[in-house]
């Protein structure tokens, strides 16, 4: 039986960061608040768990940029590997969540390539998975599933503050 975990809304991440900046604004200039916000964002780059992760994300970004004209992330940035904090955020909020993007990428064989996006280990339909609405799934290795759960929990704690 394949395991699955729940995704999380990127809007809440942005909102929490915005609230933190606003709460601190009375002690700092607006310019200083934007500098801190930019610094926080730029220091949160995606961790690559395997060479396959880099290849996987780059191929998906290239395909999305080629297929969807003027497509941007929720942060109005182009789909390039540098614009995502974690592979979990990328998969959950930008690939699986959007049915149009997922269908396009899945038809090209870019979502489930028979390898775990995290580890590059072999996967199939009996492997653990993460799904949205139980219809769009990404198959993972056991280790990849653990990594996704860990990143999802870290993100939840960072956004909710506990």
Give a written overview of the molecule.
- The chain has 162 residues and is mainly alpha-helical.
- It is built from 6 helices and 2 strands; from the N terminus they run αααααββα.
- It has a two-stranded antiparallel sheet.
- Helix 1 packs antiparallel against helix 2 and helix 1 packs parallel to helix 6.
- The chain starts with 9 loop residues before the first helix and ends with a helix.
- The N terminus is likely disordered.
Which strand order do you get reading across the main beta sheet? 1-2
Order of helix and strand elements from N to C terminus: HHHHHEEH
Mean pLDDT: 77
Helix content percent band: 40-55%
Radius of gyration: 17 Å
Which structural class is indicated by helix and strand composition?
A: mainly alpha
Ranges with pLDDT <50 over ≥5 residues? 1-10, 39-43
Number of helices: 6
Percent of sequence in beta strands = under 5%
Distance between the termini: 31 Å
Net shape:
globular
Q: For the report, how would you describe the main beta sheet?
A: 2 strands, antiparallel
Q: Tally the beta strands.
A: 2
């Amino acid at each position: 039986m394949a395991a699955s975990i729940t995704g999380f809304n990127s809007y809440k991440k942005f909102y929490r960061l915005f609230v933190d900046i606003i709460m601190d604004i009375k002690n700092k200039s607006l310019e200083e608040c934007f500098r801190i916000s930019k610094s926080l964002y730029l220091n949160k780059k995606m961790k690559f768990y395997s060479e396959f992760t880099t290849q996987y994300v780059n191929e998906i970004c290239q395909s999305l940029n080629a297929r969807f004209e003027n497509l941007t992330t929720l942060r109005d940035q182009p789909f390039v590997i540098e614009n995502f904090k974690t592979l979990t955020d990328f998969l959950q909020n930008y690939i699986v969540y959007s049915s149009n993007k997922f269908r396009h990428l899945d038809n090209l064989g870019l979502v489930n390539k028979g390898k775990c996006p995290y580890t590059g280990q072999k996967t199939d339909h009996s492997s653990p998975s993460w799904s949205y609405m139980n219809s769009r799934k990404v198959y993972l290795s056991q280790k990849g599933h653990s990594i996704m759960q860990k990143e999802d929990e870290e993100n939840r704690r960072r956004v909710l503050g506990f």
